[in-house]
Amino acid sequence: MRRPKKYESGEATQYISRRAALRKLQLSLNDFRRLCILKGVYPREPKHRRRAQKGSSEIKVLYHTKDIRFLLHESIVWTLRDYKIFAKKSNRDRAIKDFRNLKRRLALFPEIKLDHIVKERYPTFIDALKDLDDCLTLLFLFSTFPSLHLIPREQSNLCRRLTIEFLHYVIASKSLRKVFISIKGYYFQAEIKGQKVTWIVPHYYPFKPQSRQEVDFKVMSIFVEFYTIMLGFTNFRLFHGLNLAYPPQFPSSVLQDSEDSLKDEASFVSDRIAALNFDLLRTDKVQEDEEELDIDMELLEQDGDSKRIIKMKQEAQEVSRLRTLFKGLKFFINREVPREPLVILIRSFGGKVSWDSSIFAGSAYDETDETITHQIVDRPSLATQYISRDYIQPQWVFDCVNQRTLLPTNKYFLGETLPPHLSPFVDSKRDTYIPPEEKALLDPSLIETHAQSDDDSEDEAEKEEEEAVDQELLDAQLQLAYQQETAEYKKYGGPDGVNEDEEDPEDDDEEDDDDEEEEEEEVDEKTKRLQEEKQKMSVQSGKVHKVNKRQVHKAEVDEHRLQARMVKPRHRNLFRKLIREKQTKEKEEWLLRKKRRTIEADNKEARKTAKREARKEAAAAAAKASKLGK
Amino acid sequence: MTKKLGLKRKGKDAEPTKEVAASSEASENEEEEDLLQAVKDPGEDSTDDEGIDQEYHSDSSEELEFESDEEGNYLGRKQSSSAEEDEESGDEEGEEEEEEDDSEDEKEEESPGTSKQKKSDDKPSSSGAATKKASTKELAKGDPSKPEYQDSDTSDEEDIRNTVGNIPMHWYDEYKHIGYDWDAKKIIKPPQGDQIDEFLRKIEDPDFWRTVKDPLTGQDVRLTDEDIALIKRIVSGRIPNKDHDEYEPWIEWFTSEVEKMPIKNVPDHKRSFLPSVSEKKRVSRMVHALKMGWMKTTEEVQREKQAKRGPKFYMLWETDTSREHMRRIHDPVSAPKRDLPGHAESYNPPPEYLFDAKETKEWLKLKDEPHKRKLHFMPQKFKSLREVPAYSRYLRERFLRCLDLYLCPRAKRVKLNIDAEYLIPKLPSPRDLQPFPTVESMVYRGHTDLVRSVSVEPKGEYLVSGSDDKTVKIWEIATGRCIRTIETDEVVRCVAWCPNPKLSIIAVATGYRLLLVNPKVGDKVLVKKTDDLLAEAPPQDVLESERIKTAVQWSNAEAEEQEKGVRVVITHFKPIRQVTWHGRGDYLATVMPEGANRSALIHQLSKRRSQIPFSKSKGLIQFVLFHPVKPCFFVATQHNIRIYDLVKQELVKKLLTNSKWISGMSIHPKGDNLLVSTYDKKMLWFDLDLSTKPYQTMRLHRNAVRSVAFHLRYPLFASGSDDQAVIVSHGMVYNDLLQNPLIVPLKKLQTHEKRDEFGVLDVNWHPVQPWVFSTGADCTIRLYT
Known about the structure:
The complex is a heterodimer of chains A (630) and B (785).
Chain A: H1 11-14, E1 15-17, H2 18-25, H3 29-39, H4 49-52, E2 62-64, H5 65-72, H6 76-95, H7 99-107, H8 115-121, H9 125-130, H10 132-142, H11 153-173, E3 176-181, E4 185-192, E5 195-202, H12 217-241, H13 259-263, H14 265-275, H15 289-303, H16 307-323, E6 330-333, H17 339-348, E7 352-355, E8 374-376, E9 390-392, H18 395-403, H19 436-442, H20 444-473, H21 475-492, H22 494-523, H23 525-537, H24 549-564, H25 572-629
Chain B: H1 11-27, H2 29-48, H3 50-59, H4 62-68, H5 71-90, H6 93-100, H7 102-110, H8 115-122, H9 128-132, H10 136-141, H11 148-153, H12 155-158, E1 177-180, E2 186-188, H13 195-204, E3 211-213, E4 220-222, H14 225-235, H15 277-292, H16 298-309, H17 357-365, H18 394-407, H19 420-423, E5 440-445, E6 451-456, E7 462-467, E8 471-476, E9 482-487, E10 492-497, E11 506-510, E12 513-517, H20 524-535, H21 546-551, E13 552-556, H22 559-564, E14 566-572, E15 578-581, E16 587-591, E17 600-604, E18 609-611, E19 623-626, E20 632-636, E21 640-645, E22 650-656, E23 662-667, E24 673-678, E25 683-687, E26 696-698, E27 705-710, E28 716-721, E29 726-732, E30 742-749, E31 760-765, E32 772-776, E33 780-784
Antiparallel strand pairs in B: 1-2, 3-4, 5-33, 6-7, 7-8, 8-9, 10-11, 11-12, 12-14, 13-14, 15-16, 16-17, 17-18, 19-20, 20-21, 21-22, 23-24, 24-25, 25-26, 27-28, 28-29, 29-30, 31-32, 32-33
Helix pairs in contact in B: 1-14, 2-14, 4-5, 5-8
């Protein structure tokens, strides 16, 4: 029997280094990278690196041997090789100025086809939805790009088209759940077929020239190449699920024969599609979303009411409420407000929206429309205001969606200082720090008490200030009044005299008691002793045993510490790590709490001083006025 | 070369140029210097254009050249051409050589008319007729300072025409010569002045500005006024020849009017009227192809191409969840999603999430190690959405995510999501394990130096302590009163009360001597009995070996010490560190760490005899202990513990502690479990029946553990350590052999003060009550109840 050699079986044969993979596939590193990105092949972390690397301990990029063998049979490997040949030949043609041949070659450029890879990477549609996060985030970014050396115009146009289509789906299916304005961009979270899909839309003008070390657009472009195909197929299926026509089209009612539409129909339609403001053409005629939902609810009710079912029911109710959150409201977006995110929000929750027709095509009505209920503005003041509508800042819309109710608009009015914008993605039952704003949202009763306490404190402050003002300004008047009062006392002498009489006898009694005691001591010590003994013997009311809470706590902590020392040696490091994590978490929480306290104290102080000053000024003004009057 | 200078001045050309030069010279000095540069440059260029020049020269006859020139020259040259013809006919040999002369060819471009004169130059020995046709070009190279006749006189010597051809002249930079003349002699470079000479010439020579260097000969050439005028015209973009009239009347050689009748009388061929049959066939074929769809119009092709360009989408998945069996990559691990943002990332976060000055500083300080930062971004607050800019690191973040997706190694890992509490073993609550000491109830003060050791009377009324202040004190436990103080000569290392309740003896290890002291407390009968017992030595029936004799001497105490209570003195040959009694109170063992192979000794009190149980040293002995029931002897060296059977005189077991330095031992009263304390913070519980390795290792203390002790009745043990703590633990041993001992730490009693890195030195239990005594470096003994 042959003696087995080292590294001929087991983990060493499971993994293959990148270098070996390149050699095996006969590809350049660039082509290999492209292949890996498109096929979704990634390096693996072996269980025992040393064993997997056949004894060497330096860190190499390792791939599964099976993955590489899998790549060996991929058809696009041949396309990649064709690219190489194409580049060689076309370069030659260019060099010898054989332009006719070059033209012929360019027409025969080997196209890469990725359809089968999409199917292969995402065997079910749900798999594709699960991986949609990165795809959408990247495509939304690329849809804003200018034409670059490595990113052709067509690619960014395609990205724009696909993302708009996806947004149309989100609006039509009303699947948006959470939104958040971050410093990085707008976060959106939609629930599509039970999968939570989160994507980021960057703020305006995210593109900045980057050095090659910082950002390699080539790599991103390859990702986008795959993601566009994937999103296209996903959109296709999503649209069909909603009985919408794909690619999106408008019903003829929208396409009225106006001058614009007749002039260039294609661009007219694409503009209107990008506006996101119109419903798309449906392949069926009936809309029965609402009915379906009702049926679901009934089914749930029939199932009974275990906790989970109740929870699900509540969730379903909330969602149904969210879907019609803005129903019946008419919004107008001012020109300084970012249009697209707000249109998505308002339209997905049933509101109507429009904007100035000079900013973007597809506005439905003008600013002068009297039926507008809310106008979204983001400037400190506005010259002409309609009394029939609320002028609110854009954050209101976002907060409403996250809270799933229409919040009172007074905090979001034009020019108001906005309340903090909270993230809807944090777990409300977490054990870390929860800011008071969030607590108030979770438990509405807290809002009132908070407000009340604020009012109280303000009232107190006011009283104090009043007193201060009185003392400062009305000293003379007070003195006068006091003198008058004393004069009155002297004149009538009624109730005050009685009081004095009452006080005196008490004093006498005390004196009497003292005298008696002295007498007792002097006269009879024995009886006293007896009495004392008796007192000792007698049943006395027991003292309440006060538990020193701090000591008890300390004892408990000590006990716990001692027990913690009994952790098994093999768990000790893990235990320490866990404890350390816990401690840092607690420290973080403590720090936040402390910061909040100091901030609030400062604010209160500032408010107080401001009020005091205002009052002083008012008082001074009043004094002046009175002087003038005199 | 310069010889033809004068002749050039003849005729109409010479005078006007002079005038122009004279008039312009004064005013345009600066301009002219610029012009010079312009002149130099084209000269250099022309050397490179050698090939073209040659072509031109060889192709064209003289006449053609003239035709290409301006009108004015045309006529003038005609005269000269006749002369040239003469010349050519005269010496045809010159023609071949002429072509070689590249330097002249260059000049020909500037003044084409001069080419003929050059030909005459080809033969330096040519006749006077040839010299008459001096060219402007030659003039340029001539030296104006010399009179004409001089030139003509010296023409033979001075014709240093270079024959190297039109080559880059810098090839000759390294040589003294610059080429070869007609006679194949080297043309030596003229002496070159340095910059100072140049400067001086610039100052002195009024014509410096119009002096150029001939790259071929290396000689200075003074430009004539004519040349300068020519250069000026060229630079200003005019036609070089000033005689040329751009506006002279147009001579219509061919009429522009269309004649009614054809000029030629040949009729058109019939072919030109009839449509081509072959073309018709071809067109019909194309039409057919179009009709059949074999061929497409360019428009159609374009449209198709356009349509084909974008990706095509179709229903890829038939249902949501059905899975088509396909080859996939092996064992796929999906990439984890990005973390969702918290409140801190908001554009308008609650104020406490913003960094204060300290946090900002810290954040900025970790610029090189961004992974250590608390947050990967700096929280910011904006008053309104309008003011929020694009996030500067957005692109970078997306790029890093892409890198993560294709470059980051993936593996499936089980993430441990447990609470720290879960790792603490489930033990019964201390409250259920009472009684055990919880509070300090008595402090025995009186010693003036650290108290090394403590021991309790078997009945539990008195306490003995030995200290570094060379005294042994006997205390009443209940009152804390010091009853007796026995002073010794040296530091008291260890005290031990005899466990036999029928004797009242304390063994005191002080220096080299082991004192057996009668404390004279308690039952007086007992005291008397003990005194009687120790009064006289029993008769020695066995002869002691030399080895023992040199190590130990027994003696009765002297009168002075007798008063203090010392009855017997056993003098050792090395300082004693520890003394311990056997359970019955007849035997006691001492340890002298420096005693090498005699470091452990066993003394028998009744026979006043000593034994040395070991003949070989197995290491530095730290501690010895008698088994409470069996005739076994425990010896702790630094690392290991050996158990010897005293009857069979053999090693029973060796316990491996896996620790650096053992400090003490204590055995469970039943004798099956041993507790070992070590200086490396550990306590080891050995189950002697189970294994030679510790059943449990406890790290209860934060510093070296000095001593451990089992309680005789309660399932308790205590340990004292340098961290000033006495830890009381529950150590239950069950009769059932299958059940493991239960160990629960109960209470940490930390009232001793720290002194010189020492905390608690010794602990001991009360024999009856669950009380523990501890001695410390702070000169006190404390009782915890």
